[in-house]
Design a protein that fits this description.
By secondary structure, the chain is α+β, with helices and mostly antiparallel strands. It folds into 2 domains: 5-353, FAD/NAD(P)-binding domain, CATH 3.50.50; 385-474, 3-layer Sandwich (Rieske Iron-sulfur Protein). The chain has helices at residues 5-9, 33-42, 61-64, 74-83, 86-109, 129-139, 163-171, 322-339, 355-378, and strands at 22-29, 49-52, 68-69, 117-124, 146-149, 152-160, 177-180, 187-191, 194-198, 203-211, 228-239, 245-248, 254-259, 262-271, 286-295, 301-304, 312-316, 392-398, 401-408, 411-415, 427-429, 434-436, 443-444, 450-452, 461-466. Helix 4 packs antiparallel against helix 5. The structure holds flavin-adenine dinucleotide (FAD).
Length: 475
């Protein structure tokens, strides 16, 4: 995964891989902001806490984000009001506001040097200013420092920080948590009231399991893949031209903040698996990408992973607001483990069902899945492999076999382009040189290695040959 600016500036402490079977009270799977905040809120409890991370701590979405800390999220509030009610949207707002306040206290209490600063954020809309006005009207009276003008809301105080420095600081507080990196959980079973998880070579037995993998990795029975989709955006740095922190609330999103002497811009949002538009910026200094889970009804899902099992937890569908939401998740899940109840348990209930929103989102998802599973299998265009450019890839039909092919320095790499999650046909993304699942958003590199879930397993690379090899024609 391409490093972000934040990762280049700061390195988080390294941890060993798991090399023996273990038993623990609470197992947290995933070492992004969510996993770390769950560990933070549980670290002083009576329980023995273990956190396993498939890659390195904080190496995925949490280190590739913009770093805006916002309890005010106009389009999310509007969606929640539409799907549920004004009261639900106001409760969501309140839980984010409390998370913001508590997060600032954590930074101060632990003296976390994460370049936290308080600033006004400007939310604007060209296409739908009336949506901003609706949200403004809903909150007017509760926040005196919010200003509305024609097509813009100025909100103060909100914050920004360096997310990697923040995670580094949180990790340094987790002395009594056992952390393992490069330890990927591959499957889960329950044996006599205990969770048993396999990590390839080793077994972890736990009383409680928190799935903090951003996209939930276990498919059944709860089928989170029917309740959300994944979007991906490009982030890039340019020399600083404007210090204002802005967010365009239109469908074609745009976000900007400043870091050091640069502006950090976010643009080009697309569903994972859709083609990326070319990024035409003449003075960009560095580019990376990030993706997140979008829940169909606007509310994140935090709570019991499966209905009826109060020993396994999930936190997902943050709609690109993971800083406050991972805080809410850490607090809510730790309270469910320690006290068996939490103030916002019903608000974020993962097993709620909204027939109308869920049905329309589900039909769109079903169409994409059908296309990726059926149409793309039948209508694959044939590509002249021999004349492929270097550093390019494709999904093609080769002697009646479907193959993902990538050419790198004269070598051809190939694998069967069927997603290891639920079997959709992968698509090639030329902007990032990756193969992506258009149904649920998993991503693979050109060797078939999984980069982003929900897929857990890599796809075995079946063909590796070179232009110079005699057997080149076999491709
Ligand atoms: C373009 C963009 C900009 C954003 N900017 C902001 C912002 O400014 N402010 C904000 O609040 N939010 C922002 N977000 C949202 C934020 O990035 C995410 O919501 C947040 O990082 C999610 O945190 P997480 O811990 O759940 O996921 P992650 O950080 O992805 O962590 C999940 C971890 O689980 C691990 N894992 C996965 N599978 C396994 C397995 N089988 N075994 C072990 N480990 C596993 C992964 O390796 C990963 O490290 C942005 C999102 C996008 C797309």
């Amino acid at each position: 995964m391409k490093e972000s600016y934040w990762q280049q500036k700061t390195k988080i402490k390294k941890f060993p891989a798991l090399d023996h079977d273990i038993e623990t009270d609470v197992l947290i799977i995933g070492g992004g902001l969510t996993g770390l905040m769950c560990a933070y809120f549980l670290k002083d409890s009576q329980y023995h806490i273990t956190l396993v991370e498939g890659d390195e701590i904080g190496s995925h979405s949490s280190s590739h984000m913009t770093g805006k800390i916002s309890y005010f999220q106009p389009s999310v509030l509007k969606n929640i009001k539409q799907s549920f009610s004004e009261l639900t949207a106001l409760r969501y707002f309140k839980s984010n506001l409390e998370a913001y306040i508590s997060l600032v206290e954590i930074i101060e209490k632990n003296n976390i040097q994460c370049d936290f600063s308080v600033n006004p954020h400007y939310f604007y809309s060209v296409d739908k200013p009336q949506d901003l006005k609706t949200v403004y009207d809903m909150l007017e009276g509760s926040i005196s420092t919010m200003e509305f003008t024609t097509n813009q809301i100025k909100m103060f105080p909100l914050g920004t920080f360096d997310p990697v420095k923040y995670m580094k600081g949180i990790v340094e507080t987790l002395d009594n948590v056992n952390i393992y990196e490069h330890t990927k959980v591959l499957n889960h079973t329950k044996i006599q009231h205990k969770h048993v998880l396999k990590t390839g070579q080793h077994r972890i037995t736990a009383k409680y399991v928190v799935v903090a993998t951003r996209y939930p990795i276990f498919n059944f029975p709860s089928m989170y893949f029917l309740k959300m989709h994944q979007v991906r955006s490009a982030l890039f740095l340019t020399p600083q031209r404007d210090r204002r922190i802005v967010l365009c609330e239109d469908d074609d999103i745009y976000s900007r903040r400043n870091i050091d002497h640069y502006n950090l811009h976010v643009t080009n949002e697309r569903l994972v698996g859709d083609k990326e538009k070319p990024l035409r910026v003449y003075d960009k200094i560095q580019t990376w990408h990030n993706q997140d889970c979008i829940s169909h009804d606007g509310l994140p899902m935090i709570g019991y992973y499966d209905k009826g099992d109060c020993t396994m937890f999930v936190a997902t569908g943050y709609n690109k607001w993971g800083i406050t939401m991972s805080h809410v998740a850490g607090k809510l899940i730790s309270e469910l483990i320690l006290n068996k109840e939490s103030e916002y348990q019903d608000l974020y209930e993962p097993h709620r069902f909204k027939p109308i929103t869920s049905a329309s989102a589900f039909s769109r998802l079903a169409l994409r899945t059908m296309k990726a599973e059926i149409v793309d299998r039948i209508v694959l265009k044939k590509v002249d492999i021999e004349n492929m450019d270097n550093h390019s890839g494709t999904v093609t039909d080769l002697d009646d076999t479907m193959v993902a092919v990538y050419k790198e320095n004269g070598h051809y790499y190939g694998f069967v382009p069927v997603c290891s999650h639920l079997g959709c046909i992968l698509k090639y993304n030329s902007a990032e040189h990756t193969f992506e699942c258009p149904c649920h958003g998993s991503r693979f590199d050109y060797t078939g290695k999984v980069l982003d879930g929900p897929a857990i397993e890599s796809i075995e690379s079946t063909i590796v040959t070179s232009e110079d090899d005699n057997n080149e024609k076999e491709l």
